[in-house]
Specification:
Layout lengths: L8 E2 L3 H5 L8 E6 L6 H14 L4 E5 L7 H4 L8 H5 L5 H4 L1 E2 L5 E4 L9 H4 L3 H9 L5 E5 L8 H6 L4 E6 L3 H16 L4 E6 L30
Parallel strand pairs: 2-6, 2-7, 3-5, 3-6, 7-8
Antiparallel strand pairs: 1-8, 4-5
Keywords: ATP-binding, Kinase, Nucleotide-binding, Transferase, Tyrosine-protein kinase
Pfam families: AAA_31
Protein name: Exopolysaccharide biosynthesis protein
Length: 224
């Protein structure tokens, strides 16, 4: 079950971030300054909230190193973003329906040691160009900004970027560094969501993201 969005803690940019779909581009990148901040969880909840509000929504897992969208939704392995960008499958085959009406998901499609070249080969930009007319908003989950260059590559293609962070002074310093990096590349930083999900014993903040709901796998949507 999706966590009610009201339970998230928001930063000053909340209105800008959640209204970013009114901008020229309907692509919204969701990332964090560092790993383990629950960015995938927040991206999934934002996607679900928009879908339940009647919008056509796509959630793309562009974390090709440690993608978690598939496991978060309880989806079995299948064609995903890595397959599309490498030319091994077409876009439609990588789109999957879940138990939230109006929401489609494109999983990472596997974990790669160095996906930077794959993300910057031009196919991601072309894929987004084809997908944008079919959705009201597209959320893209990426790796951490300060950990890998992948997120910077993706953020440059989005209309807006939302940063996810835990509250605290150390987080503020990391956020400032992340914002500076993004702004140097021309990315539009729409705002910050301060997320403090409850931790359980044995949680690995460097690898795992919080999970809390599942969805049944269905056949690929035919709307695209």
């Amino acid at each position: 079950m999706l966590m009610p969005l009201e339970e998230f803690r928001f930063g000053r940019g909340q209105r800008s971030a959640l209204a970013a779909t009114r901008r020229r581009s309907n692509v919204m990148v969701v990332t964090g300054a560092t790993v383990g901040v629950g960015k995938t969880y927040v991206a999934a909840n934002l996607a679900g909230l928009n879908a339940r509000a009647g919008k056509r929504v796509l959630l793309i897992d562009a974390d090709l190193r440690h993608g978690r969208v598939a496991s978060l939704f309880g989806l079995s392995p299948g064609a995903g973003l890595a397959h599309v960008l490498s030319g091994r499958t077409d876009i439609k085959a990588a789109l999957r329906s879940v138990d939230v009406r109006g929401l489609h998901v494109m999983t990472a499609g596997g974990e790669l040691a160095d996906p930077s070249e794959l993300l910057s080969n031009g196919r991601l930009s072309e894929m987004l160009r084809q997908l944008m007319p079919h959705y009201d908003v597209i959320f893209i989950d990426t790796p951490a900004i300060l950990a890998f260059a992948d997120a910077i590559t993706v953020a440059a293609l989005g209309g807006s970027t939302i940063l996810i962070a835990p509250p605290g002074p150390q987080s503020d310093d990391e956020l400032e560094d992340a914002v500076n990096v993004l702004q140097r590349t021309g990315a539009n930083v729409a705002g910050v969501i301060y997320n403090a999900p409850p931790r359980r014993a044995g949680d690995d903040r460097r690898r795992a993201y919080p999970t809390g709901y599942a969805a049944r796998r269905r056949r690929s949507p035919g709307a695209f």
